[in-house]
Description:
Layout: H1 5-26, H2 35-51, E1 75-77, E2 87-88, H3 91-106, E3 116-122, E4 125-132, E5 135-141, E6 147-149, H4 152-155, E7 171-178, H5 181-193, H6 202-210, H7 215-219, E8 224-233, H8 241-250, E9 259-262, H9 265-278, E10 286-293, H10 296-302, E11 312-316, E12 321-333, E13 338-350, E14 353-359, H11 363-369, E15 372-373, E16 376-380, E17 388-392, E18 402-403, E19 419-421, E20 428-430, H12 436-446, H13 459-467, H14 482-486, H15 493-507, H16 515-521, H17 529-539, H18 542-546, H19 550-554, H20 561-572, H21 574-586, E21 604-608, H22 616-625, E22 629-631, E23 640-643, H23 649-657, E24 660-662, H24 664-671
Parallel strand pairs: 2-11, 21-22, 21-23, 23-24
Antiparallel strand pairs: 1-6, 3-9, 3-10, 4-5, 4-7, 7-8, 10-11, 12-13, 12-16, 13-14, 13-20, 15-18, 16-17, 19-20
Helix pairs in contact: 1-2, 12-13, 16-17
Amino acid sequence: MQIPADIRVRYRKLVETVNHYRVQYHVYDREEISATALDSLKHELSEIEKEYPSIVAPDSPSQRVAGEPLPGFKKVRHAVQQWSLNDAFSADDIRDFDERVKRFLSASIEDPRPSYVCELKIDGLKIVLAYERGLLKSAATRGDGVVGEDVTHNVRTIDSVPLALTRAVDVIVEGEIWLPAKELERINRERKAQGEPLFANPRNAAAGSIRQLDPKIAASRKLDVFIYELASTSEAFPKDQIGELEYLRDLGFKINNQFKHAKKIEEILAFWEEWREKGRKQQYWVDGVVVKVNEGVYERALGYTGKGPRFAIAFKFPAEQVTTRVEDIVLQVGRTGVLTPVAHLAPVAVAGTVVSRATLHNEDEIKRLDVRIGDTVILQKAGDIIPDIVKVLTELRTGKEKKYRWPKKVAACGGDGSIERVPGQVAWRCVNLESPERRKRAFAYFVSKQGLDIAGLGKETAAQLIEEGVITTFDEVFELEEGDFLSLEGFAEISAKKAVAAIRKAQNPPGGVPLEKFITALSIQNVGEETARDLAERFGSIEKLRHASLEDLEAINGIGGVVAKSLYDWFRDRTNSAFADRLLKHLTVAKTEKKQRGTFTGKTFVFTGTLANISRDEAEEIVRKLGGKAVGSVSSKTSYVVAGAEAGSKLDKARDLGVEILSEKEFLRLTSA
């Protein structure tokens, strides 16, 4: 098969890039890009090799296991070769694995019926332990699979590694050294105080601890280990994988008890789903599930490929970082007329969802990243955070990439398309604030949960109401009747009734519309939810806010001159003032009681990741009721960061800044103190 020239260029670039990052990661414990981003590059490379088998290069990452041993350590040749598992990323990949296993076995075994054992894939440092007559002889890293590094002096300091087994047997076992999350936080606090670089994650910390010439360093860190594989034994080999785990435990090894015998594929998928949620709540990091054929007779029949075993596969959790390519950069008009550059991407799955767009924030961010159309980029999404481009892999450039030129006019702004720089800011905006695109976005925000919370109207319906001319000013939404909706696509009598009912409910909520929601819904330049809450608390009523002087607004803690001027000018604009008057005829806006001093007075909280027992909105409301503030970004002024499952970059920043980190349980304990 003829291989296109651009595929050859892309493949060579991928081989060189992956090899570089693999050496940094496996040999020098440097995580220049995340492991999941590296997995994404490797996956693209393997897909090319599947489609064009003749392209496979001798130095392709698919032809080797890991990096060379680190210079300066004594080399150890493994008595049993160490392998690397192939990866699965979806339910279809697991079904394909099952079909491959059965197809291969069918060639030599009649009617094979394999079952599987699911074990947690711990994100740590692989270790190979050799025992003679029950005594620890050596401990070695995996290295390149044939030769590893002798780290016996450090591994002996780990309490969960037995120096002597329960009986005098010769065995070689494999496992994973890991560092508890709380221990990582303690070590990083010490390193920060000493001006040393922080460990990015427990895996790097575990590797950095084991690869020390002084065993006192490893001994000072509470390293742990799980043993999961019996490579060889002088006794009879267990008949299956479950028996193997029991055998290891019987010899005195620490195994992870969270495993499952699965007779159906659905059981594998259920176990994976369960631990996808629970994985980051453990003291050890779990980045997937290892699926192994249980029956020993089948395992031996399946054997190995050039890279790894046919009888096992690593079922990875959805990546929080992946790589993809920028296909275009387009300016999007926001609710206040501000222009946001958005990267259109080759669709890619990240953190469980398929993403095809990511914000680039502003012109300065494009320049900072030096992102170009055609670039390969690292995309990050943690928890429910919006996807973000964090790095451009410039080493994959071919010279065909195009720099983005900031335009002088934007058609979506309407009129002549003129744009202007927002005074004192990096943002650009439409000169014409009555453009259809800007009005659609502003109206969608007006009816959203953050605004007046009209639950029956989503973004598409909001856009239709503007596009079809059903409403010309936003306040007219409160005058709509069922018949007005019937002219819209997708609406019938029942859905029209529901929409009107939702409008009436939002119009007359118990106690009135909260003042901060009313302010937020107006889409005033530079005024978001947090600022709206500060304004509501300071002024208490919409009447007092409307008549506040510029000096009154500037005097509010946390509101600068730019925001104060936006507010002052908005309420003194005749069109805006008339709009507010009409709104107040339809709505009763509640007065805000001045916040009482509470447990969290003067404290600022940031929430990241997924909380198990309450929603993030509920948690933030608890903070406010107790006198504190809940904000969206971490700074040196942040009092606490509350980290749930799949916490992302905010948690990393908190560690860098030395901000106190709370678990959900610790946060809830504080609220009841």
